[in-house]
Design a protein that fits this description.
With about 140 residues, the chain is an alpha+beta fold. It has helices at about 5-20, 25, 50-60, 125-130; strands spanning about 30-35, 50, 65-80, 85-95, 100-115, 115-120. A hairpin with a 2-residue loop joins strand 5 (about 100-115) and strand 6 (about 115-120). The longest helix is centred in the N-terminal third of the chain and has 13 residues, at about 5-20.
Length: about 140
Amino acid sequence: MTAHTAPEDLYRQGLRMLLDKDVPGRVGLWDEAGVFEFPFAPDGWPRRLEGRGAVAAYMRDPSDLIGLHDLPYVEIHRADAPGTIGVEMRGVGRVVETGGPFGMACIAVVTFEGGLIVRYRDYGNPLVAQGLSGGGR
């Protein structure tokens, strides 16, 4: 990964890391001052994380809640703003506590500078998040 790698390629690398449960690798995609926002976060869940350290703490291994198996749909759109992409995706897996199926569609707007994420807005469905135990990640 370099500052000259296309944002789409950087994002796809992050998705591979997500499926491989490579948390340190995913955290390494973030700028030290990167901001992670969740505009539709339910009560008790973070709405804004500032800095790589806060992102790292949030990204601890999610396998205690969700066993993510696949991302069967990913579509990446280049935005007019430099280094910015829009992403539509769907993840599927199992809820660890119940063994029941998990599925979630999401839209994200991600901005990269110098090959690192400086801003990530995750427009996930808060109703799905509220159905998981361990709220308040």
